[in-house]
Write a structure and sequence with these properties.
Helix content: 25-40%
Strand order of the largest sheet: 1-2
Structural class: mainly alpha
Distance between the termini: 37 Å
Shape: globular
Number of helices: 6
Oligomer: single chain
Number of domains: 2
Bound molecules: zinc ion
Strand content: 5-15%
Radius of gyration: 18 Å
Largest sheet: 2 strands, antiparallel
Length: about 190
Amino acid sequence: MNPEQSYHDEPFRQEEVDNLYAMASRIVVLSKKCYYVASEMIFGNPYSADADIPPHDCGICPYCRNQILFPSFNRSGVENVFFNAFYPERNYESIAEDIHPWTLDALVKSILSFPDVQRLLFLSNATTPIAPIEIKKVVFTLTIARILQINFHRVLKMTIFALARTSPAVPEFALRDDSFWECIRTK
Ligand SMILES: [Zn+2]
């Protein structure tokens, strides 16, 4: 599992990574529905891709109490901010700058520096500065949706992020593809 170990069992590692993705995606997908009912449907029907959730709610889970764990995104703003974070417009001064690997901290710092970032990401008019954790939730959700791709940087020994393609052979970004947005709450 640890990419730094000398022995690599790639199929096993991939299975573990897929399991982590599946578990993490439950957290994000569940935040669109009553947790209690959705968990019962998902774990009661583990082999059906997307069990239909009946419309009744439990009334006590975070969803039913209106506790928003993962905020709704403004899709066009998220697309704009993340595309420009990874592919900034290069001008005469910046063209010679090193391109830094996008570790989580570097990515969050870059996104925090966007003017008007709260309105772009969440259509929020809040004037207080946005907390880094809110940006991390966006990164987490986009990673679960496979819009962001994670890689391991063997020199830095850290996870780094990139914009995922819709499939390995094509140049289109998952960020711009409707099917990758299905599990994400948008407004
Ligand atoms: Zn509930």
